[in-house]
Amino acid sequence: MTKFVFVTGGVSSSLGKGLTASSLGRLLKSRGLRVTMCKLDPYINVDPGTMNPGEHGEVFVTDDGGETDLDLGHYERFIDESLTKMSNTTTGSIYSNVIAKERRGDYLGKTVQVIPHVTDEIKDRIRRLGSLGADVVIVEIGGTVGDIEIVPFIEAIRQYRRDAGRGNVCYVHLTLVPFLAPSGEQKTKPTQHSVTELRSRGIQPDVIVCRSDQPISESLKRKISLLCDVPANAVISAVDAPSIYDIPITLHEEGLDRIVCETLDIDIDQRPIDLATWQRVVSRVHSTNRTLRIGVVGKYVSMPDAYLSVAESIRHAGFAHGAKTHIEWIDAELVPQEVTSETLRQLDGIVVPGGFGERGIEGMIATARIAREHDIPYLGICLGMQVMVIEYARHVLGLSDANSTEFNSTSSAPVIALMAEQLEVTDMGGTMRLGAYPAMLTPDSVVAALYGTTVVSERHRHRYEFNSRFRENFEAAGLVCSGTSPDGRLVEFVEQSEHPFFVGTQAHPEFKSRPDRPHPLFDGLVAAAAQRAEGREPHIFTPETVDTSSL
Ligand code: GLN
Fold first, then answer.
1. What is the DSSP letter of 517?
2. In percent, how much of the chain has pLDDT > 70?
C-alpha cells in the first residue's frame, strides 16, 4: 500500500519546505523505502518554463523534458532518483486539463466546479504518481497556507486522507519560530496562527517542523505541542544548518522520520535506518582544506537561485576534491569594462551558464575570450557553449560578424542557428529541444576521458544549435566537436585541447550532478581549477593525463 506525506508551509515563504521534504525523502529512502516526490504549485502558469528565472529561480528539466520547479532539483539530489514531469503540477496545468475535459463533454452536462472537479484532478495526479511502485510519495504544496491560490490544493489533500485511509497519510507542517531580540525569546504565536489556519481548512497536522536560528527548547516544544495538539515528539526543531546537506541528519536526530513512520504505520524496527552513504556526503562537505574561486558569469546573478543546479554542481565537484568552492556571481553586462580581464584572471575557473535573450551576451563572449587566451578553466553550458563558439569564430576564425541568429538574424556568419531556420515560432513553449538526448563522444577527447565512456545522455533546453556548416572551419582551427547526436548532425560538445580546460556542452549537465557523484564535466572543471590554484604551470588537460578513476 502506497503511503503519502503532505508537506505544507506556514508563516512565510522561503522557509525551506523543499529541502525539508527532500531531507525527509532521503531519510525514508535510507530506511529502505522506495520514495518518490512531487510538488504542487499554486500559480496559474501551466509550467515554470515561461517564467523569468530572475524572479522564480531556475527551471529544472527532467529526463522526459518536463520544465519544472527548482525544488525538483533538490528532490533528485537528495533522494538520488530521476523524476519525471509527473512530479510537478501547477494550478494552470490542472485547470487546462479540467477545461479540456469540459470542452470534450467529459463532465456530461454537469456544472464544473472547484470541488469536486478541480480537487479530483489534483487527487488524480497524486494517485497516479502513487501507482508507479513507490512505498511513499512525498507531496510538497508550494506557497503558504492562507494564500488564496492554495485553497483547492489544501482541500484536495484534506480529502486524500479519507480516500487513502488514516494510516496511509501524514501531514507535515513547516513553520517559523522567530527569535525576538528585544524580548530575548523565541515566539510560538506565528506557529499557532498558521496551524489554526490549516485547521480552518480541515487539516490537523501530524508533525510540526519549526524553522529557527537557534534550537527550540524542550519547554517550547511542549508549549507548541499543547497549543497545536500534536505530541511533543512530533514538534521537530529544524535549526539553521551550516550546509543544506546537513539537514537530513539534523532532522533525523530530531526524530522526524520516526514520527512520520509511526503516523504511516510503518514499523521502524523492520526498517532500520542506514545513513552511512549520507554521512559520507556530509563528511566530504565538511572536510575541505582549501578554497577555489569559481566565477559564474550570467545575467541573473542577483538571483543565484536562477542558477541553483549549476551552483550545487560546482559544490559537489568541490567536495570530491576536498575543496570549498567560493562562487563569484559576475554580471555579464559588467565584463570587460567593470569586471576586467585582470579580475577574471584571479579566478580559478569560470562557468558561463545557460540563458535566453541578448542581454549580457557581449560580456559572456568577452569572458570566453579571456578564459581562452589566459588559460582559465572554462565550462560553457548551453548558452555558455554558444558564446564560446561565437567568440572562437570572431577571434580565431576571423569571422568578425559571427553570431547566433538569436541575437543577429542577418549575421553573415550564423555559427549558432535554429534547427530549422524556417521554423515558425508561435507557441514559445513548443519549439525547444527538451529533455534527455543521447550523444556520442569522440574516443580520444577530453569529454570522453572525463565521462569514462563514449555514449552519454544529457538533458537539454534550448532552441538554437551549433551550425554544422562551420564545423570543418572550427576543427581546422582547433575547436574540436567532441560529441554529437548519434546521427552526427547536431554538435553536442566542443573543446580545445591546448588549454587547461576549455569545454562546452549544448546540454545542461548541472541537472544530473549528485552530492556524492559530481558530474564529470564539473569534476573536470574543478580539477583544472585546483591545478590552477596550486599555482603550478597550467596543466594541459589531455585524455592521457586525466584520472578517471574517481568518476
Ligand atoms: N538561448 C539559447 C537557445 O535557445 C540557449 C538556451 C540555454 O542556454 N538553455 O538555444
1. B
2. 95
